[in-house]
Every structure is written in structure tokens, then in C-alpha cells.
Amino acid sequence: MQDLGPAEIAILIALLILPVIGIVDASLLPSSAFRSAGRRKFLWILAQVFLGYIGAVIYLAAIRPDVRFFSAAPSPDWEEVSDEPITDEPPPDALPDDQAPGDLEAGDLEAGE
Predict the structure, then answer these.
(1) Predicted local distance difference test score (pLDDT) of residue 96
(2) What region, left, alpha or beta, does residue 74 occupy, with left being phi > 0 and alpha being psi -120 to 50 degrees?
(3) What's the rounded Cα separation, in Å, for the pair 59 and 37?
(4) From CA 34, how far away is CA 69, in angstroms rounded?
(5) Which of 45, 60, 71, 103 is the least crowded, having the fewest Cβ atoms under 10 Å away?
(6) H or E stretch covering 42
(7) Share above pLDDT 70 across residues of the chain, in percent, rounded to a whole number
(8) Closest-CA residue to 27 (of 54, 53, 56)
(9) How much is the CA Rg of the chain, to the nearest whole Å?
(10) Given 3-state DSSP classes, what are the helix, strand and coil percentages for the chain, each rounded to the nearest 5?
């Protein structure tokens, strides 16, 4: 058997670690994001397990961007900043509690309409 040099060892490590990164990433994303992107989470995890490096490259390059678009998970440096004060009052255009969006009041329609 031939001795492996530093370049071969680096390539071997990359071939082994990339599928692990892809599997962990797919596992942490919500299933709803996969469904919204038209993908199946379970199948992409299996593809990475059985196809290894090739499955991980396909997932990370083509599937992950679509799924992340539909993911509600914010990135770690994300902060929501609002200039609006926090109040318990409903917005001015909110419906009264006893009126549903489809309900009509007695004077809403004119005769003949």
C-alpha cells in the first residue's frame, strides 16, 4: 500500500466530512421548508447517506438554497428592529371582536344591489 501525502489526506477528509455537513444541515432545517420547496427531507438525507459526496454536493448546491428560501429560521446574526412602540391596542384597521371578515352590517348594502 502506498503512503498518503498531505493532499490526498485533505481530499479524503473533505470527501468524508462534506456528507456529514449536508446531513446535519438537512436535519436541522424544518420539514415544512422542504415541503414548501417541493422536496422531501427524508429522501435528501437518505441520498446523502447512500450517495455520499455526490449526494452532498447536489444537496448543498441545488436543494439547500431552495429550502433555505422557504425556511423561517433566521440566520444567527439576524435581528428584527422595529421603530413602532409595543402596545396592546389593535391596529386602527382591525375588525371589531364581534365581526368576522365576511359579516355584513345592516347598512352595508344599499337597496337594489
Answers:
(1) 64
(2) beta
(3) 13
(4) 10
(5) 103
(6) helix 41-51
(7) 63
(8) 56
(9) 26
(10) 50, 0, 50
